[in-house]
Amino acid sequence: MKPVDIVTLVRSTWENTIETKRLAQLQAIRATLDAEHLELFDSLVDMQISNVKDDAQAITLMLVHGIQTDGSWHELVKAAFRDVAHVRVKGLGYHCVTALQLACPFRSTPINKIANDFRDARLMEPTARIMVIAHSFGTYIISRILAKYTDINIERIVLCGSIIKGNYAWEKHARHMAAGNIVNDVGTRDFYPVLATFSTIGYGGTGRNGFKNTRVADRYFDYGHSDFFEPDKDHIVKYWKPYILDGTIVESEWDSIKPKTHLGIMLACHPWIGRPAFYATVGLITAAVAGLAWWLLT
């Protein structure tokens, strides 16, 4: 094998192998080479790694999904950015979180796991700009990472199906981020953020009502909870791709015609009204059922 063949081999393997499997594939190839070629091979591999790390335009786009899902929409985002060489899309995940676990106050395991993934991505590509697209419970994870881990810096954030509280202190936890670097895509038919708000503790209805503050750009769409990922809507390419690439916030056509939020939805999302009313109703129903059962059995 000639030196030129080694160069071609490393380059073709690097370009035609899935990013997460590149190094393993190159190591497997290295084991088959004669000793006289190893120095050149190692130098070429180091050069490829250095080129990635030193790319001033490099973007690491982190995707964080919600509960009871494996984040199948991650593949749609990867496909949308496949033609952009300097964007590396990394779909992050955690063990399945059930609705019951969502309601419990013990949520540190998925938060810590995703935080460690962010740190690992920074180690692999130190100069890359970190950006995030998060859905549903993934938005809550990002909000806790920003509040808890000051060593993790994120340049741009896209939220959809958000269950972050409306009074979240963006001015404190995202003070390192430039104006316009947080976008919240709202589904005007999304009931899950409302349900999370009044039935559990620690969440908000911002995926339905928006944040309505100076730090976050709310965009409204005639969507349900996961309609952002429907192929026929082309939301990823039309709205998210321009924002990730150069910060362009494409306005929603629905913003100007969206209906008023129903008073019942606003009350359900109110921290002093929705949750107390829900638990009072549950308590009354439980007491009524228990009373009926006692009456029937005596």
Automatic annotation (TrEMBL):
Membrane-spanning ranges: 277-297
Keyword Glycoprotein: no
Domain AB hydrolase-1: 60-178
SUPFAM superfamilies: alpha/beta-Hydrolases
Gene3D superfamilies: alpha/beta hydrolase
Keyword check for Nucleotidyltransferase: no
Top-rank taxon: Bacteria
Annotated Pfam families: Abhydrolase_1 (PF00561)
Keywords annotated in UniProt: Membrane, Transmembrane, Transmembrane helix
Protein name: AB hydrolase-1 domain-containing protein
Organism annotation: Pseudomonas lundensis
